[in-house]
Amino acid sequence: MSTEIKVQYTEIAQKLANLQSKAKSLKTSFPTDIGGKNHMDVISRLNEIGADVQKILHSYQSFLLKSENATKEAIKSMKELDERVSEQFQLMK
């Protein structure tokens, strides 16, 4: 049984790029003016819900992009650490 953990940096980078692309293309707009000049309570409530959904979608998009960036930074740090450890092992030989 091997104790080595292999990180596939290229595959991770591709998946993160895909996540970033999908997050950026997420449509965060939502109709916020249903009914026009109609002042029925239901229409007002639907407009409020639409505005809330739009805010939630925008927050979700922002969260995805921040998560993608944080993951990218973590992977970069892991790779740098892995390279330093590898160099140290080479010096010990």
Description of the structure:
Helix content is 74%, strand content 0%. It is built from two helices and no strands. It has helices at 9-25, 41-92. The longest helix has 52 residues, at 41-92. InterPro entries: DUF5344. This is YwqI/YxiC family protein.
Sketch the topology as an H/E string, one letter per element: HH
Specify the number of helices: 2
Work out the helicity level: over 70%
Structural class: mainly alpha
- Straight-line N-to-C gap: 23 Å
What is the tally of beta strands? 0
Overall geometry comes to rod-shaped
Low-pLDDT residue intervals, each spanning 5 or more residues? none
Name the average pLDDT. Answer: 85
- Taking all Cα atoms into account, the compactness measure Rg is 23 Å
Beta-strand proportion = under 5%
Major sheet summary line: none
Q: What's the domain count?
A: 1
Organism: Heyndrickxia sporothermodurans
Protein name: YwqI/YxiC family protein
Pfam families: DUF5344 (PF17279)
InterPro entries: DUF5344
Attribute tags:
single chain, 93 residues, mainly alpha, 0% strand, rod-shaped, YwqI/YxiC family protein
Quick summary:
The protein is an all-alpha fold and 93 residues long. It contains 2 helices and no strands.
What's the structural blueprint in terms of helices and strands?
Layout: H1 9-25, H2 41-92
Helix pairs in contact: 1-2
